[in-house]
Amino acid sequence: MDKSENRAENEQLKLSKYGDGSICGYNSLQHLLKENLKPHHFQEVNRLLTGLNCGKVLETIALPESATALSMEHGFDLQAFCFHADKEVLREPRVVRVGLIQNSIALPTTAHFIDQKKAIFEKVKPIVDAAGSSGVNILCLQEFWMMPFGFSTREKKWCEFAEPVDGESTEFLRSFALKYNMVIISPILERDMNHGEIIWNTAVVIGNHGNIIGIHRKNHVTRVGDFTESTYYMEGNTGHPVFETEFGKIAINICYGRHHPLNCLTFGLNGAEIVFNPCATVGGLTEAMWPIEARYAAITNSYFVAAINRVGTEIFPNPFTSGDGKPAHTDLGYFYGSSYVSAPDASCTPSLSRNSDGLLITDMDLNLCRQFKDKWCFRMTARYELYAETLAKYVKPDFEPQVIRDPLLHKRSS
After folding, report:
1. Is residue 348 flagged as an active site residue?
2. How far apart are CA 149 and CA 229, in angstroms?
């Protein structure tokens, strides 16, 4: 074993001994508050944190024993909730069951790449089975679920994990899609075999009949802190596609795209009812943003948002720097999980665990999307023509901001 492998293993041992990723010993903020507040205090705090769905606290769902048994056996967090919509006269409820999977990697990053991928497949399998046995219609995995997040190292060896759209990961998940009649969204590192084998950050949409419905490539590539992803792939070229499935119209807004309001808007303009946001983001960088952004996108665009984040700290063999003058390090920080779903009415689920693998299942009545379009009239009151006019000017080299300056701004007081 060489020095870099020793270093990685020592860092991993230190992490497991002194830091479990919990919040003061609790696996989520909700658990911390529930255990430390009086019940009536927690009820009010929780109302503000998760909102009310149709005027009521979000209901939990009873899941089959087969799913809970898998959760106990394999140690993953399992939670389930239900979003209602108001009863309509002319439309029946359109209830869709959605599942989100968050997970850590299964082997150290120093292990053989084939072994790493195989171990992740084995780890994810019982979680997918739990989703399938629970009757999930649409399942989404986290960003790059099939590999470690090695992109901050800027070492090109991680490109070996890239695969074609119809590659190993897709084949692995297609069997589950067929078995459980389930649409599966699989975010992978794609190798584009038709265009010089270039690399993309891609979500593959696998239909419930085992077919590939289509793909979406990440629109916005992160360039902040350790997230130097443009070393590996650039902005995608698939626009803002919405995939019409048997269970509803869905879109995938990959990771960093959640920070761009116009990106979120455009999926809505194309008719999305559920937008999945598979991510890989760490504490210290985005954790304060995390509970806000999916909720805001759901409210302003009248669709459901499912935000998924990976779990754990991934230690790499060779130190790398952030270009900020701080010492080199061998990890990006802690991937804090905390996956959740938000609805158009501002209600949201509690989050999954911050420090363990998990499956979040939600029933959502898609009628809620139109009901809140009608209630708030955001589409009707928006001024798209004004925004379009400004954007058309902004992208030109001779753009000048519309600023009216006070003529006395620089005049000295007498």
Report:
1. no
2. 10
What's the Cα-to-Cα distance from 388 to each of 380, 383, 392, 395, rounded to whole Å? 16, 9, 6, 11
Q: What is the mean pLDDT of residues 336-353?
A: 98
Query: Which of these is catalytic: 140, 255, 279, 348?
Result: 255
Token pair listed for 136: 């999930």
Among residues 143, 229, 293, 314, which one is catalytic?
143
Is residue 218 part of the annotated active site? The answer reads: yes
Active-site residue, selected from the candidate residues 163, 218, 314, 348: 218
Measure the CA–CA gap between 260 and 15, rounded to whole angstroms. 33
The pLDDT tens digits for 151-166 are 999 999 999 999 999 9
Q: Is 11 a catalytic residue?
A: no
| Per-residue DSSP letter, 322 | -
Q: What tokens appear for 112 in the block?
A: 């053989």
Q: What is the CA radius of gyration of the chain?
A: 22
- Residue indicated by tokens 């420090």: 355
Q: Where are the domains of the chain?
A: 14-50, 58-376
Which class does domain 58-376 fall in? alpha beta
- Amino acid letter at 79? Q
What is the distance, to the nearest Å, from the Cα of residue 1 to the centroid of all Cα atoms in its chain? 36
| Structure token pair of residue 81 | 């909730």
Which tens digits make up the pLDDT trace of 208-225?
A: 999 999 999 999 999 998
